Amino acid sequence: MSHTAQIPSHRKPRRSAQKVTVIRAGVTGGVLSTIAIAAAAGPANADAVTQTIEMPTLTSGLASDFAKSADATQRVANNLDLRAQEDAAVAKAAKSAKTAKAEAERRAEAEKKKAEAEARAEAARVAEAERASRTAERTVLTASSSNTGSGSNSGSSTGSSTATSTTSTVTSQATGSAAAVVAFVQSHVGDAYIMGSTGPNAWDCSGLVQAAYNQIGVNLPRVSQDQSTAGTQVSLSNLQPGDILYWGGAGSAYHTAIYIGDGQFIGAQNPSKGVVQASLDYDPPSGAVRVL
């Protein structure tokens, strides 16, 4: 047995040989790249081993898939952009509609206020015309009744007493529906005058005339202007009981009353006198219309 047989060897272990793997990867367009991979393998002084791995080249099918994916992404983006435009258009339309509605409401309110102002102005004009027609100094109603033979003590009588003194004579002259109209206005002599009132105890001029005819089934217009053209125009020299007298122009009259015969009329004159019976000489009318 050798005397060195039990002595451990002092030789260094061999280093593993490097294994180099070359990977050839194909890419679209034919460009190749080589990747070298070093790995520990085998003895240290072993020859280096080179291994080449061919990677598959990207096919045209994959490229087509990429292209389709890009197209799909673009379509989604286009759809989102279109939706955003549609939303913006809807919002703009809603805003325009809201603005238009507000403008329409503003104009309607302005028209309403204008109409109300015109109505007030017309009412004031009519009232002023009635006041102006009676501002001149006239003989009191009792004096008027004395001119028609109502008695020597008529100076102390009232409009109501004047109506009483002539009621029987006037009634005898009226017949049929005319008599009913005359009787109605005679029954309201002494009532108050309130502009816009239509009874039963206060009237304006056209309200009393309208009510007198309504109770016999004849519907007259409400205002003096229309009542002055509601029938056939007649001469003041050819009046009959029940005829409608008017002051002012036909179609633009500012006052109406009822002729009751014997040169007398009854009407709601003004706030200071109320409903009175008076002579045509006291306040001569402009014209007359016959309804019955």
Question: Can you offer a commentary on this structure?
Answer:
The chain is of the alpha+beta class. It folds into three domains: 18-61, no CATH class; 75-133; 141-290, Alpha-Beta Complex (endopeptidase fold (from Nostoc punctiforme)). It contains six helices and eleven strands. The protein has helices at 60-133, 141-147, 159-173, 176-187, 205-214, 224-227; strands at residues 18-26, 32-40, 49-55, 192-193, 202-203, 232-234, 244-247, 255-261, 264-270, 274-279, 287-290. The strands form three sheets. The chain has a six-stranded antiparallel beta sheet. Strands 2-1-3 form a three-stranded mixed beta sheet, with no helix packed on it. Helix 3 (159-173) runs antiparallel to helix 4 and helix 4 (176-187) packs across helix 5 (205-214).
Helix content: 40-55%
User: Structural class, please?
Assistant: alpha+beta
The figure for the number of domains is 3
Q: Roughly what is the average pLDDT, rounded to an integer?
A: 74
**What's the CATH H-level superfamily name of the largest domain?**
endopeptidase domain like (from Nostoc punctiforme)
Shape: rod-shaped
Strand order of the main beta sheet, please?
6-11-7-8-9-10
* Rg (C-alpha, Å): 58 Å
Counting H and I runs of at least 4 residues, what is the number of helices?
A: 6
Reading the helices and strands in chain order gives EEEHHHHEEHHEEEEEE
Architecture (CATH level 2) name of the largest domain: Alpha-Beta Complex
**What is the first-to-last residue Cα distance?**
171 Å
